Amino acid sequence: MSRLNPILAASVQSTDAYQQAIKQTSEAVVTWLQQPEMYQGKSVAELRERIQLDFTSQGLGNQAAIERAVEFFLKDSLSVHHPQCVAHLHCPSLVVSQAAEVLINATNQSMDSWDQSPSATIIEMKLIEWLRTQVGYQAGDAGVFTSGGTQSNLMGLMLARDAFFAAQGHSVQQDGLPGDLSKIKVLCSENAHFSVQKNMALMGLGYRSVTLVKTDRFARMDINDLAEKVAQAQANGEQILAIVATAGTTDAGAIDPLPAIAALAAQHNIWVHVDAAWGGALLLSEKYRDYLDGIELVDSITLDFHKQFFQTISCGAFLLKDARHYELMRYQAAYLNSEFDEAQGVPNLVSKSLQTTRRFDALKLWMGLEALGQQQYAEIIDHGVTLAQEVAQYVSEQPSLELVMQPQLASVLFRYRPASLATADDAAIALINQKIGDALLDSGRANVGVTESDGVTCLKMTLLNPTVTLQDIKVLLALVEKTAEQL
Questions:
Q1: Is the pTM of this model over 0.90?
Q2: Where would I find the H helices in 312-361?
Q3: How does pLDDT run across 97-119, given as a tens digit for each residue?
């Protein structure tokens, strides 16, 4: 393609260049997928030295630019599809999700107004309607696709805040935050996602507004301590604008007791937001859907599809039980969502989103559901949960390994603790487990998480990959033990 016309368009010159670029790129990906290593094992310093920008005045052309991207990015990327890549909530992606990305990127639709994304707008709205039925909400389309859990949690907390003040006759949108805010509180468990604190700070209420509720031995919110914290807040003259429950904590995969939390909140007229960024995948489960009982009772929900729905990053959603609360954040711009448009029934989704320009990520979920069907989707979601239970049983039988907590979703918390370390102090055991995780990544052989559970430093396997078997994990655990012995 001529450097004077590098834009994707209908000309023969453009479409030829597009096909060549896609072909070159896809062939490089296929080659990369075959490499045996999980990671090439380069350090931060090595990558800083290796990666150099080359922005020449004349440009390199598409072919050379792609070759450099393959050399300096693709080859040194983490292979998230590798059976020994289990550190994080970081999933391999569906093939059809990759196809969806081609369509999303080529069309470059912007989801802020219907006249920039006509068919895409309707597809997203229909998907939101479908997701609401899966949750158990009433029919409607109150919800929107988001960049992921942090943004969805922000929307839930922001609308909870604005609804709280609106009930007192005050509009945050029009007049800002009123008076002394030191008495405003949000309650969440000790194991809730850090975005609760992050978002409360972003909204001007600060970390101090977040009260942490104790958890039980399975990392779930303690409903008795929640009741005590609510009573204590009221006795102190504090006002609770929301309770954030978690359906799938990052490490343990714990799901808070949703029915009990919703019932307590209803007694005190408190907004409940559920962060189901991970556990929301069980909406499609055939074996474990009951883990989410009570989710239909809450005011707003976070869902992520770039976790155990196996979609490419990013792809999330926010669901709002009562559509009238969207009025608390609606803003009209004549060039996007004018009153004239609304009178004609034109759906401009900018009214439902914190973003203006926004990708059509909903296409990935739609194509995934249509390609796999609900039964196969349920099978690959359930696989991880069932595998975690099998792995936990295996770990508990190994003399050098210790199961730290029984799994609840698709994660296994364990640590290396052989008989030779039986008398070692906690710090020494913690250090050896930290070093195991670091050594495995440095070698490029595996990526195992290092975290803490109730003060215990441990290793974590997050088993999202539906192609991974118990035998694969046995190989990984043998590698953990061998690495520990070498250390």
A1: yes
A2: 339-343
A3: 999 999 999 999 999 999 999 99
